[in-house]
């Protein structure tokens, strides 16, 4: 009887781990692909609007044009540092200069989280982005460094 209970618990735990892995990695890939598609569509729409905009809109820009590097933000697993490019007062790109990648787990988590965080930044045009489950330390470092870069860029 004891062996039967142990076998059932082992089976339940294995199924839970498989479901959690699916939700963490495969669902996030789909969300990242959708975000990338939406970002591409938004960028094309932005380009069309920007070409027809007048010079008076540049006076209302939230950020000054340029490249800004945020301070490295310390996390439990290592520093995160980002650099952002501002064109026409908008965030046009985000580059991650430093992030935890010392082991396979760090690399796996950040391979999923960082593209999502970068796409969210372009979509939201701020450091107020959604957290990716399982990457909260990277989130803290990414948003901290990004906010520092955006503070430098504010006009």
TrEMBL record:
The keyword Membrane applies. Residues 75-153 form the FMN-binding domain. Residues 37-65 are annotated as: Disordered. The chain crosses the membrane at residues 7-26. InterPro entries: FMN-bd (IPR007329). Keywords: Membrane, Transmembrane, Transmembrane helix. Signal peptide: none annotated. Residues 37-59 have a biased composition (Low complexity). This is FMN-binding protein.
């Amino acid at each position: 009887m004891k062996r039967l209970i142990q076998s059932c618990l082992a089976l339940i735990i294995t199924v839970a781990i498989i479901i959690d892995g699916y939700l963490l990695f495969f669902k996030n890939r789909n969300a990242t692909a959708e975000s990338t598609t939406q970002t591409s569509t938004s960028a094309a729409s932005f380009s069309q609007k920007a070409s027809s905009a007048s010079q008076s809109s540049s006076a209302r820009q939230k950020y000054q044009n340029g490249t800004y590097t945020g301070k490295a933000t310390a996390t439990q697993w290592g520093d995160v540092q980002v650099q952002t490019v501002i064109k026409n007062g908008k965030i046009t790109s985000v580059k991650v200069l430093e992030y935890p990648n010392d082991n396979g787990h760090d690399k796996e988590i950040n391979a999923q989280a960082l593209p999502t965080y970068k796409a969210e930044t372009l979509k939201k045009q701020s450091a107020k982005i959604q957290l990716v489950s399982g990457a909260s330390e990277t989130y803290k470092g990414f948003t901290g460094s990004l906010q520092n870069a955006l503070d430098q860029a504010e006009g």
